UniProtKB/TrEMBL annotation:
It comes from the Bacteria. GO terms for molecular function: DNA binding. Keywords: DNA recombination. It comes from Bacteroides ovatus. This is Tyrosine-type recombinase/integrase. Gene3D superfamilies: Intergrase catalytic core (1.10.443.10). GO terms for biological process: DNA integration; DNA recombination. Residues 1-119 form the Tyr recombinase domain. PROSITE patterns: TYR_RECOMBINASE.
Amino acid sequence: KQRTIRINMQLQQHIRDCYEHINPVGINAPVLISQKGTVYTVQRINVMLKEIKKKYRLQIGNFSCHSLRKTFGRQVYNMNNDNSELALVKLMELFNHSSVSITKRYLGLRQEELLNTYDCLSF
């Protein structure tokens, strides 16, 4: 699948800096290529993330492309507390979910809401 995304100014500058450091063959050449000269697959990136997790002893449960996608969603949601419902609608579309309730479940928000119910109890 292909998706059009917007890259903010801070990320654009970071990409420029990396681009100069990597010095790719041409403007249309892939930037991240394997030693064999092929583009990395999602599966290979997941293996590399697991190696990084092990090497640096990162205390992260699941460290994968999928967990990075989920983390992105949580960050967007948390940064938009004032407009959390609008953020959920946008995330639903970005994630290609069929409903906001699926997005809430995906981000773990529904479980959080249910657990917060117990905080209302007093004895």
